Amino acid sequence: MPTERWVPTTAHWGAYRATADADGGVRVRPHPDDPAPSPLLDNVPGIARHDTRVMRPAIRRGWLTGGPGPSSQRGRDEFVEVEWDTALDLVAAQLDRVRVESGNEAIFGGSYGWGSAGRFHHAQSQLHRFLNTIGGYASSRNNYSFGTSQVLLPHVVGSSAAVLGYADSWATVREHTDLIVAFGGLPTKNLSVSPGGVTRHTSAAAAADPGVAVASISPLTADVPAGGRWYSIEPGTDVAMQLALAQVLLAEDLHDTDFLSRCCTGFDVFADYLRGETDGVPKTPEWAAPICGIAADDIRELARRMASGRTLVTVTWSLQRARGGEQPVWAGIALAAMLGQIGSPGGGFGHGYGSMADVGDEGPVLWLPTLPQGPNPVGTFIPVARIADMLLNPGAQYDYNGQRLTYPDIRLVHWAGGNPFHHHQDLNRLRRAFARPETVVVHETHWTATARHADVVLPATTTLEREDLGAGRRDTHLTAMHRVLDPVGEARDDFNILSGLADRLGVRQRFTEGRSARGWLEHLYDQWRDQLRAQGHELPDFDTFWADGELRLPAMPENPPLVRFRKDPEGDPLHTPSGRIELHSPKVESFGYDDCPGHPVWLPQERRGPLHLIANQPPTRLHGQGDVGAVSRESKVAGREPITLHPDDAAARGITEGSVVRVFNDRGSCLAGARLSERVRPGVAVLPTGAWFDPQPDPMHPDQELCAHGNPNVLTEDVPASRLSQGCAGQRTHVDVEPFTGPLPEVAAHTPPPLHRA
């Protein structure tokens, strides 16, 4: 009997070993050094050969017969499978036609990451490199995860990396911190995941029991660590509580005037706002209590505790994915600045603890091998969350970070990696937007909603079917990602696909530089090895590394910007106009944005439904990845995504545990399976993102469609966080829920669309 061959690889949810049997069945086991492997590994075996794999190149019938042009049949049409040469010839011809007739600005390179943990087969890098070789493309900027903060933080602390790239480790927190004040809580469900993977999962256990006192401010008890105190806040009101805490520090003379004078600017403006001198409303605990649902005495007592020792104020990424999302981040920084502990071990401000595994991890901050994309000759871009606006409103103007920009007229969308029908909001609006381009080309492993809304679908390999180099931010290892399976069906990796297009467009040499995929792995590794050698780190050659399967990344000295700044604000200033932390930004104020003034403010939001819906990240998959896997499927209720309701809210609506419900508002509706729990605040419902979008006729409302599977982004609003950032605001919305009494539609999301052979 042949010996099993277990090979190393990695994923965004962690490094692991895998083996395949003669029939292509896959088994996995965690990395031997991982103290807390992610349960998401159990999704892996069922993914590669699932029925929804895209097996062959496929063309939407209406596009194949009628040619390029806008079409409302995207997402509804059947597909015709064709030969690879036919598909590549068609795509190359359309790329050439559009760039000649309309210029490269009319091509949108829509890839949005997360396609692979590998450094070379990173779909976004591959696609953007290819498009740059043919003259460029209209691009996107920032991300859905913390795109609002990416724009705000440079105005306040000089760069986003100053906060997002350097977080105290959990070991440092345990040693130095007396109190963590966690706005958005510390949700450990997110801590399996890091872009590029994590070999040793240590953050989840640390966040679940950080060894210090925690004040968890969240509408969900799942966000509260062991022994933490739960402040059950009304969703979307964190800023009111932050301002009230700051007002107590000011009124009771508990703020650090020396730090504010030495390291900050604009505190006088912010202090006037706290006192109510600018708007007539003092931001006292008594003012905040009816807004946020936290007793005034509890707010006052917490402020005093914060001032009595080393305090870490942390804000999850979820809070900035909302209207006015800049405000909880900016107010959190102001609160930490008033305590005077920014740049001190275990104190100050954190952003993303509980949001991603690498925030608080102990791995090195290290440049990793990366495929160069080259310069983009086209300067046109959009903030990433404005794709529907762009497609629906070519030529329209909009504000962004002090600029007045214009949406390009996109004729061709080329997408590889990522799934906008997971990430984006108001999916019915996105469907209308995707109807507008002349051609939509998608590289996809499975028949996701994005593939179904394409004109040309090119079958891509999964991570299991190719070789790569894998490592995440603050990972401890670089993994030699060996191939586990032969490509399923006729799937090709993105490099192979794009090389074929480059050949047809006369730029193959520029794109490939004469290297194969394996040649690129060796080249990227050797470049990276040479760079580290120059810094005094000796690493094995590529062949040794590949045979070993991994290498331990060297420790790197860290000197975070805010630590340096605290020590010498004059000699090592921040990259803000003042060189200091800007609690009031004259530059932001000069933009004149009423939804993001020049300092942290409370921006009341209209309630437009009886229940707050929180569309958070799922514990059973990464975004939509793995939705066909065992862990995700086992979490479903009657085949639908589970929605969690407080028992009182369920009883008032005649909803029982396990029943199918209709979740709805004026944007759309979906079906979900009811779970009842007192671990959510009354008036709050939780429906995680990532169930594959499954639009079908609504049996109870024949003139409407619903998502039969439970994707909350049919309900979320496609609006920006503000005119400053134009960031994603998809974390919260308002809905109602009712029992579903009509004939129950079958979930079709995990079944391929109608396919025919040419």
UniProtKB/TrEMBL annotation:
Look up the domain of life of the source: Bacteria
GO terms of molecular function: electron transfer activity; molybdenum ion binding; molybdopterin cofactor binding; oxidoreductase activity
**Cofactors named for this entry:** Mo-bis(molybdopterin guanine dinucleotide)
InterPro entries per the UniProt record, alphabetical: Asp_de-COase-like_dom_sf, CT_DMSOR/BSOR/TMAOR, Molybdopterin_N, MoPterin_dinucl-bd_dom, Mopterin_OxRdtase, Mopterin_OxRdtase_prok_CS, Prok_Mopterin_Oxidored
- Could you state one GO cellular component term attached to this entry? outer membrane-bounded periplasmic space
Residue ranges with Basic and acidic residues bias: 24-34
Q: What sequence ranges are listed for the domain Molybdopterin oxidoreductase?
A: 53-503
Which ranges carry the Molybdopterin dinucleotide-binding domain?
611-729
Region (Disordered) residue ranges read 23-47
Q: Which residues form the Molybdopterin oxidoreductase N-terminal domain?
A: 9-47
Q: Which GO terms describe its biological process?
A: anaerobic respiration
> Mind listing the UniProt keywords for this protein, alphabetically?
Metal-binding, Molybdenum, Oxidoreductase, Periplasm
Q: Which family does it belong to?
A: Belongs to the prokaryotic molybdopterin-containing oxidoreductase family.
Q: What is this protein called?
A: Molybdopterin oxidoreductase
Organism (species): Saccharopolyspora karakumensis
List the lineage, top down. Bacteria, Bacillati, Actinomycetota, Actinomycetes, Pseudonocardiales
